[in-house]
């Protein structure tokens, strides 16, 4: 064992770092760098908290024909950041695709379930969360339906 493996003696100032302290510190720094690179955090991204869709298009932007949205299911309009549901015939509703958990975008529809790809949150056709980790539902996105065409309101 060398002198660098021992803890500093009382009264020594400044205290030299032991090899273990240096290695531990480097490991913590590496973990911090990894978290920064992957973007894993518990802070929701701004779009999730602002109610924005995180997509493009303003009021009046045409999403598509109502026939694209199956009854009892939904369609994701990725470019506009909107998911349109049709829980029952003629009952359309729009929601932001931004997941309230950490801001990923809903990109999957399986029957009546809207699925976030990042951590598996599942939302119902009314936008409510049915399975976490998201703790709240999707933000409503006003839409209009005219002559068989769905648009952003
Ligand atoms: S961002 Fe984590 S479940 Fe959607």
Automatic annotation (TrEMBL):
Keywords: 2Fe-2S, Disulfide bond, Iron, Iron-sulfur, Metal-binding. SUPFAM superfamilies: ISP domain. InterPro entries: Rieske_2Fe-2S, Rieske_2Fe-2S_sf, Rieske_Fe-S_prot_C, TAT_signal. GO terms for cellular component: membrane. The keyword Disulfide bond applies. Coiled coil: none annotated. Transmembrane segments: none annotated. The keyword Iron applies. PROSITE patterns: RIESKE, TAT. One of its GO terms (molecular function) is metal ion binding. Residues 61-152 form the Rieske domain. This is Iron-sulfur protein.
């Amino acid at each position: 064992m060398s002198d660098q493996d021992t803890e500093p003696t009382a009264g020594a100032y400044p205290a030299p770092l032991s090899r273990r302290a240096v290695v531990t510190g480097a490991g913590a720094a590496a973990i911090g760098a990894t978290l920064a690179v992957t973007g894993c955090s518990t802070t929701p991204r701004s779009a999730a908290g602002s109610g924005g869709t995180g997509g493009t298009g303003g009021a009046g932007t045409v999403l598509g024909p109502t026939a694209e949205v199956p009854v009892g299911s939904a369609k994701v309009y990725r470019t506009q950041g909107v998911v349109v549901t049709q829980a029952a015939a003629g009952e359309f509703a729009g929601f932001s695709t931004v997941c309230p958990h950490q801001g990923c975008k809903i990109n999957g529809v399986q029957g009546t379930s809207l699925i976030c790809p990042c951590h598996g949150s599942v939302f119902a056709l009314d936008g409510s969360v049915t399975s976490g980790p998201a703790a709240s539902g999707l933000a409503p996105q006003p839409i209009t339906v005219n002559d068989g065409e769905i648009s952003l309101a």
